[in-house]
Amino acid sequence: MRRIHTMRQRFFFKSFFQNLLLLLAPILLIGPFSIWELNMESRSALKKSSYNVLYQVDETMNTLLSELDNVYYYIRSNPSITTSLKAAYSEPEITLNSLRSINNISSLLRYYMYTSEYIQSIYVYYYNDRDRLLVPEKGMVSLQAHSANGWIESSREMEEDIWLDTAEVAPDKYSEAKPVIYYCRKLYSTIDPSNAIGVIAVQYDADALIRYINSLGLYSEQSITVLNKKNQILFQNMPVDALDFLDSETELQLGGFEYSDIRMDKEKYTVSQMHSNYVKDLDYVSVVPTKNILRSSSWFATVFCILVGGAIVISMILAVFKTQKDYKRLEEILDLLSHPELATSDRQEKTGAFLDPYNYITYNILHLFLQQNYLKVQTSEQKYRLKTMELMALQQQINPHFLHNTLNTIYWEAIALTKGPNTCADMLTKLAAIMRYSLGNPDESVTVREELGYLKNYVFIQARRYQNKFQVEYDIDEKALDYPIRKILLQPLVENAINHGIKELEREGIIRMKVHDCGTHIYISVLDTGVGMDRETLLKLRQSLLVTEEYSPHIGLLNSHRRLVLTYGPDAGIHIQSHKNRGTCIFFRLPLEDVR
Predict the structure, then answer these.
(1) CA of 244: how far to CAs of 240, 247, 422, 442, 564, in Å?
(2) In three state form, how does the secondary structure of 256-308 look?
């Protein structure tokens, strides 16, 4: 008993490790590589996506900031406008000429404002003692009446000629202040280029720029930050302290594009930084939580662990069932060897028995053991059938001879009644010829000429029977007349055409017999203009040609098909084409190498 228990354990562990190896092998080979590959593809996709996003932001910022340059060069290239504007800032009362200049420059500034959804206003300011400021929407206004003027004081202290700054400005005293971005450029005297005489400032809507960034198809929780050269945050779509990431020393330089993995506050981030290709004062920073990048690979890793656990469980279940099955098969083998004849018959009744290797081997041993007895019984049965067929053949030879003699007697009686040849005597002559032809050995070969002679006798009798309801046309190739073929191959085809095609017609039908020598084969066809068959009936008839035991009203056609296949091979079988109310064509081909 203990030995049996030990064998069961061995079977179990062997089956368990075999199944586990088969299940885990593809998972372990494909899973880790797929996770690694997916991780690398995700990082590569992020790198490309971040670069494209930052590049698009840079292109947009360059387009927006170039509006300031257009205004600047327009004013510098028109001295008359510059002179008139400077005069408007200093004269006690604005003259008509200055007012025209103010209107002209205001129209240009409004054009830039209204053609960009990001520009809120464009200011032109010349340093003056009268606290005047050119606002495109209002013209020349007082600084005290316009709250958005912090950039003017900054310009007096700023050493740079061009700079970016931020502020929060309320459109009016009843509205909440909103973030804006100023892009400023100093104006210098044409006489003394080192003397700053004013400043041009473009006010951008920071919220509109943030909406633009969010429309670029970012990753989940991805932050895009735009900074000036002092690392001052101009605007960002999500509140992230980008300066902390820029202070990290884990940067990976990729040309003009910086890419790094940074851990901060116990969370890992992927940071991308790009310096502007157009504006030297701008930097762009992208920050994405790494977990959002690797979400797909993390999900795949979870699935991988589930598959490994499932493979272990399935392997244990399969091992239990296989151990029980192996012991059951061993017991069945012992039963088979103890009672071979009974066991063999039982095996044949069980579905899927031979899928098991033990049963297959055992059955073959028992089959060889019992094969001799089976062969003896089969040989005895074949001898019995041969004897029966010989007796039937002798009986069939007696009956046709009696009929032939009787027909001759009737023939002479018909001659005696009319004192000469008549239609009845002619029909008896044809019928006697048919019987003499059919009494011979059905397996012997005759020429096509002889087979056609037999067929014409049959057609003569059928034409009298159906009162000339049809005509038979012959298209015979002279070269094919002397080729040998099997006896009584053509008559069943014509009989089928009469019984199933012509007989049901209300008009006269035509049967065309064609025999042609095609070089490699003899083509024989029988075409009738009878009632034809629908598609369903045609398919059933074609199917019946393939089933040897099925009964069919076209028994002559089926017998001819089987004789052709047995004699000349499968390619010589009968083919049938038919159309309802149009007729039927039956044809076959005899290979000339077999005919010769």
Answers:
(1) 9, 5, 127, 106, 94
(2) CEEEEEEEECCEEEEEEEEECCCCCCCEEEEEEEHHHHCHHHHHHHHHHHHHH
Give yes or no for a contact between 576 and 520, defined as CB atoms under 8 angstroms apart. Answer: no
Which tokens go with 100? 């025209």
Beta partners for residue 16, in sequence order: none
* CATH code for the domain of 570: 3.30.565.10
Domain span including residue 105: 57-168
The span from the CA of 292 to the CA of 279, in Å, is 31
Kindly report, residue by residue over 123-180, the tens digit of the pLDDT: 999 888 888 888 888 888 888 777 777 788 888 888 888 888 888 888 777 778 889 9
- The C-alpha angle with vertex 313 and arms to 309 and 314, in degrees rounded to 5, equals 115
* Axis-axis angle for helices 96-114, 2-76 (nearest 10): 160
The total of structural domains in the chain comes to: 2
186, 155 contact by CB (below 8 A): yes
Given phi > 0 = left and psi -120 to 50 = alpha, else beta, which region is 583? Answer: left
C-alpha span between 554 and 533 (Å, rounded): 13
509 occurs within a structural domain: yes
pTM summary value:
0.46
Q: Do the domain assignments include residue 93?
A: yes
163: enclosing H helix or E strand: strand 162-169
User: What's the pLDDT tens digit per position in 309-329?
Assistant: 777 777 777 767 776 776 676
CB neighbourhood size of 125 (10 A):
23
Nearest to 534 by CA among 568, 476, 580: 580
Tokens 């009494």 map to which residue?
Answer: 439
DSSP 138: T
Helix, coil or strand: residue 201: strand
Distances (CA, A) of 294 to 9, 42, 209, 286: 44, 7, 29, 16
Q: Find the angle CA(163)-CA(165)-CA(168) to the nearest 5 degrees.
A: 160
